[in-house]
Design a protein that fits this description.
This protein is α/β, with parallel strands linked by helices. It has helices spanning 20-32, 46-57, 93-103, 124-132, 168-178, 196-203, 234-246, 265-273, 315-323, 344-354, 385-395, 418-426; strands spanning 11-15, 34-40, 61-64, 68-74, 86-88, 109-113, 136-140, 145-151, 160-162, 183-188, 208-211, 214-219, 227-229, 251-258, 276-283, 288-294, 302-303, 327-331, 358-362, 365-370, 374-380, 398-406. It has twelve helices and 22 strands. A hairpin with a 2-residue loop joins strand 11 and strand 12 (214-219). Helix 1 runs parallel beside helix 6 (196-203). The longest helix has 13 residues, at 20-32. Bound molecules: shikimate-3-phosphate. Shikimate-3-phosphate is lined by residues 21, 94, 167-169, 172, 194, 312-313, 336.
Amino acid sequence: MQLITKSQTLQGTITLPGDKSISHRALILGAIAQGDTEILGLLDSEDVARTQTAFCQLGVTIIEESDKVIVQGRGSKQLKAALNHQLDMGNAGTAMRLIAGVLAAQPLTVSMVGDSSLSRRPMDRICLPLNRMGAQVTGQKDKAYPPLRVKGQPNLRPITYEMPIASAQVKSAILLAALQTKGETTIIEPVPTRNHTEQMITLFGGDIKTDGHTITIRGPQTLRGTQIRVPGDISSAAFWLAAGLLVPDSEICLKQVGINPTRTGILDVIRQMGGDIELKNQDKQQEMADILVRSSSLKGITIQGSLIPRLIDELPIIALMATQAEGQTLIKDAQELRVKETDRIQVVADLLKAMGAQVTPRPDGMIIHGPTPLHGFKADAKGDHRIGMVAAIAALLVTKGTAFLENAQAIQTSYPQFFHDLERLQQHG
Ligand code: S3P
């Protein structure tokens, strides 16, 4: 498709789609809790639909009403074998890893398949701890790529696991198995990662402790159905934050965005780069706020260390911001980017270079020099929603030529109304 280029100004208010990480977890915990869970603001996208369909196939009734989704929880270890013992997780890495954690403790054998992007993502990171607990989770080749076969074991043993990588998906897979396991499981993270699973276990009446980098949970626990309001996804908001900063004379208000501190690294980075953002109507308890962004001159910075897990999904759009910032931006300690929906270090570097930016990929990140005027380009989302959205925002900055995006449908993974919202901002809606 041809992208909109040379945007004049972007103005208006956007209500973002629900947070993807929280939406998956609300369905998952709702399914294994006892009683009904009401979810308000569940993300309506392809990835979350995979989780919903998977639990329907596993015997959970999920009712969609106009303003909410109701999950009729079956309670722990009450899932049924899917009809052909196969679940199709599409592009959804979070769904595959977290649901494998649930299934590891169920007396079922299930095969989980994915699309071509998911089939290239390593699953050994969850196989190792789950198998140490006594399950049999196996994939293909050295990194246990999907299809993944999960042979559950209803009497898992608790473990103490020092995670070699910072990954909320791995942590969550272990926690979901540990919830159903007799005894105390301890997880030690190298760097704290998003804590939605821990928060939600508490919301469902469960007991879990976090002390610095250490999380402890004693099972088995019975969760009780509850009500969840899913905030707007800060990872989707990031694209409008970048657009608002970079397109001249813009002012965008993003409503009810999730501001859980394990996710707000992007806000810290924008402030450090000199960007004009303001948080309004903060609801500290629900960790939500409206974010107002205005066009700004940016300067290059270094992004590294414990900040990385707090903005891992935002790094592609941050890299685009860096092409327009004065001086050098260095991104390091982000080797995990190489095993996302695409190798996001290589793909982002290639994409930005194709539009004239100065980018050097490194094994664990990239160096970007700016500001550089951007010209027309031909991009391919390659099954990666965030690459598709980076290309669409970059096109707004193109001063010469035309911009094209192949396979833009990847954006459906997390933000089906993306182009609709872009049009509204251009019409100052
Ligand atoms: C997620 C964790 C992160 C993130 C992904 C969603 C989650 O992945 O990149 O988009 O919901 O737990 P890792 O756990 O692989 O870092």
